[in-house]
Amino acid sequence: MSDPTQEETREAILTATVAAVTAVIVAKAAEAQLLLLTRFAKLVGLYGVGDLLLHSMRKASADVAASWKAAVPGLAAQVVGRASHDGASAGGGSGGTFAPKFGVAGDSYESHAERSARAIREDLAGKLNQIGYRLTRYADDVYRAVLADAAQAQVLGLTPAQAQHEAYRKLVREGVTGFVDSKGRNWELSAYVEMATRTAAQRAFNVSHLDRMQSLGLDLFTVTDDGHPCPLCLPWQGKILSVLPDGRADATIPEATAAGLFHPRCRHVLVGYIPGVTEIPAPHEWTPEDEARYVESQRQRKLERDIRAAKRELAAAVTPEMRSRAQFSVRRAQAKMRDFIEQTGRVRNKRRELLNLGAN
């Protein structure tokens, strides 16, 4: 029979690893966005609309983006290196000494786990580099929106200054946007960085963990129950998986992954399966209660995003009127969250309502 304590320990290690490496990167991305927003606030107040404002905005964006891009290689290596090390450690044996070698691609000394770690690191670096590109473009996005809304001022019955302030308010409320994942979903900056980093850390952990278990002679695996089912991963809890097609398995690990297992933010861990020894829990069918809890969790994520949006608006306010309006927006969004928590009994996670998602 498998040891539930060991399974819980593996999940706890994965959770702690992902939280640690994600916090650092989310904090840096949030700091970059806030720095840009506060600089824009000063520039709009100083110059108003005009060529000088656009030039100054572009320079501010370029400076912040350059600092971010310079940090990306080290940040990506830090995430994957830590997750790979901890994944091997959770596999038992001497795995705790594993650390991926990031030298020249194709080096003969690289193991399968190291090659996988390199690919994951490069994929994460590519996603994080998108932040720099969007930071660079943000100045033009804000400026064009201000001009477009100012041009409609007469139609709306607003003065040009009022239209400019409203356009600016909307843009800073949204923050740096334009991050689209493989499913076509749009993400705000902090949430996108969190998703990309958590996914990379989880992949590196599981690949390293799997490699370590295979080195110990295990060729069949099962999926733990993390206590937070969703429609994508629930069907795979308790299933038997293999690396290559195997008549004893329900599917291969790549097949399960393609079907939704190990989706972004998934916390599942593969555990070695020994026929006749490892105990598999009874299958858990997706119930209306599960669906209701899942819908509530997604609603809570939406309310958290609304609070962060209002706080961005407040951080970048350029007039007393905009500041007062933003403060009201923050209080209203927080009140909606309090009502939601009271109605559902869910636990409020105030960390996720902060602009940097609670990273220090």
Give your account of this protein's structure.
With 360 residues, the chain is mostly helical. It folds into 2 domains: 4-217, no CATH class; 288-353. Helix content is 64%, strand content 4%. It has 9 helices and 6 strands; from the N terminus they run αααααββαβββαβαα. The strands form 2 sheets. The protein has a 4-stranded mixed β-sheet with strand order 5-4-3-6. A hairpin with a 5-residue loop joins strand 1 and strand 2. It is elongated and about 75 Å long. The protein starts with a helix and ends in a 16-residue tail after the last helix. The model is unreliable at 93-97 (pLDDT under 50).
List keywords for this structure.
mainly alpha; 2 domains; 4-stranded mixed sheet; two-stranded antiparallel ribbon
Total of domains: 2
The average pLDDT score comes to 81
Strand residue percentage: under 5%
Instruction: State the total count of DSSP E strands.
Output: 6
Biggest sheet statistics: 4 strands, mixed
Topology:
Elements lengths: L3 H44 L3 H40 L21 H40 L1 H4 L3 H15 L4 E2 L5 E2 L1 H27 L4 E4 L16 E3 L8 E2 H6 L11 E3 L15 H28 L4 H25 L16
Parallel strand pairs: 4-5
Antiparallel strand pairs: 1-2, 3-4, 3-6
Helix pairs in contact: 1-2, 1-6, 2-3, 2-6, 3-5, 3-6, 5-8, 8-9
Short recap of the structure:
With 360 residues, the chain is mainly α. The chain has 9 helices and 6 strands; from the N terminus they run αααααββαβββαβαα.
